[in-house]
Amino acid sequence: MIQANELPTPLVWIEHWPEESADEQEIFELVIFSSYEVAERAPYLGETRAWIGEATWKQLDRPTVEA
Questions:
Q1: Separation between Cα atoms, residue 40 and residue 47, nearest integer Å
Q2: Of all residues in the chain, what percent carry a pLDDT higher than 90?
């Protein structure tokens, strides 16, 4: 997804769970990945592979996300 959409790294990812799917309370979580690396997998074929490190989550509120 990062490569296909040409997103910058390190990636800032915020998960959003609307009230309807989160027991009547909207939830936002910042997901932080420990690393991001693109390595050549088969150089003769021009293939690359991306590795994303461990994820950690931090709960956010709507005003923080909007800022």
A1: 6
A2: 27
Distance CA 41, CA 64 (A): 39
CA 15, distance to chain mean position in Å, is 8
Tokens standing for residue 10: 């390190």
Contact criterion met (CB below 8 Å) for 33 and 18: no
Which residue's structure tokens are 């690393």?
35
Collect all residues with Cβ–Cβ distance below 8 Å to 2 and sequence separation of at least 6.
Answer: 9, 11, 36, 50
Closest CA to 17 of 52, 67, 65, 56: 65
- Per-block mean pLDDT, blocks of 10 residues, the chain (67 long): 76 84 83 78 72 88 91
